[in-house]
Design goal:
Elements: H1 3-30, E1 36-46, E2 54-63, E3 67-74, E4 78-82, E5 86-89, E6 92-95, H2 98-108, E7 119-125, E8 130-136, H3 139-144, E9 145-152, E10 156-163, E11 168-177, H4 184-191
Antiparallel strand pairs: 1-2, 1-11, 2-3, 3-4, 4-5, 5-6, 7-8, 8-9, 9-10, 10-11
Amino acid sequence: MPIFLKALLLFILSLSQSYANDELAKITAQLVKTPIAQGQFQQQKRLKILRKPLLSTGTFTYHHSQGVIWKTLTPMPSLLLINETHLLTGQGEQAVPPAFGSVFKALLGGELNRLTESFDITGKDQKNSWQLQLTPKDALLKKVISSITLTGDTELRQLELQEASGNLTQINFTQITHPDQLSQEQQADFERLSP
């Protein structure tokens, strides 16, 4: 390839990356950022082996330094606690790769710029809404996730996760609030996680 074409290609790639960074900065600036966010979710999971999607509902709590509480209420109650280094479920606690733990916090905490460490990001910012497409860079994430599509306004409203296996999960977030402090129950849940 002639040097001129290589230089032109590099220039075009740097422009597209700069544009993506500008879009991400604009979107991140719109988001409400507080130490605590909580709300409800409705999750629809489409498995390749099933005709009907699996539906679940529940609540989530994000705390900027303690992590995320993901509480499924229907159809089967369950609890998932995650911080940047550990994940706790009914089956016990395990260490998680740093890329995995930071993704949860970045998504629910409005820290979308942190996602550039683990994902290539493209997006579009419209007047009252935005959408981002995330493609994993991290080898461990690539084994699980093909892509993530985020949609929102001043909050993250929808997350669509395309798994490497072909399964698809769509999560809608509603009734999002930003309390000044955690409830006693939320604090007790976070205390169950290893530091």
